[in-house]
Amino acid sequence: MTRVSMGELLEDAKKRKYAVPCVNSINLDMTRGIIRAAEEVNSPVILCHAEVHFKYTPLEVIGPILVQEMERAKVPVVAMLDHGKEFSNIMTAMQLGFNAIMFDGSQLSYEENVKQTKEIVKIAKEFNVSVEGELGYVTRPKSGAAEGDDDDSIIDDTSMYTDPQQAADFVEETGVDTLAVAFGTVHGIYLKEPQLDIERLGKISDATGKPLVMHGGSGLSTEDFSNSIDHGISKINYYTNMALDVGHQLKNEFSTHSGHLFYHDIMMKTLDIYAEEAKKVMEIFRSGGKA
Length: 291
Prior knowledge:
The protein is of the alpha/beta class. Helix content is 46%, strand content 14%.
């Protein structure tokens, strides 16, 4: 299928009030399962690989797989570097054929975040690559953070949330295609029930006019997702709960298995379960039928 720009894809999602699933994929089985689901329900999807997952699969190994599967898919698929912080990794991803990158400058000062994001956008345009920036800080729980971060940040610290006017200035100054914002979600496993600041999210959407991104979607209710989409979220990064659910189902599937168990049996079952879980997510995000 002809490549699709993430920027264009998310503008469509913003207009038609759905969110494109952005699923971390660290091997071929997961990738095939996600694309199978997208094709079966006719949903666009973003395959992403995060810097913190390089310990599982190096970028140079998974990159060509994601790009190849993106180009073979029958629905719009984007290959994206997630939470890119190192300039060398961002450049490698673009050279490998990724057509979107997320530059995470959220832990920098505002001025430095603007400066570095603006430079990344300038370079990305030469590669025809979409760029997601981040403003505000999506906190990580102390334990159970599946993305590999065990930061001690406090979930309720609203000083880390994205400021609407600053977000508008950031978008204007950097030229990003989309913006990841902080309004109460966290990466990894929730240690307490989240309290999303939906009013703040709506103000950010109005101020920026851009499609917005939710990180830390695992553990939210269907209502939380729906309200977030209604108030400007057009892309949702989702990994932890899916990885957990698949793991639990595989454990149950093979716990009473008798006889020989081959690795390829586990591989094919992983693919099947991943596809079913991905379809559930696409239904919740309203992306089914939108390809």
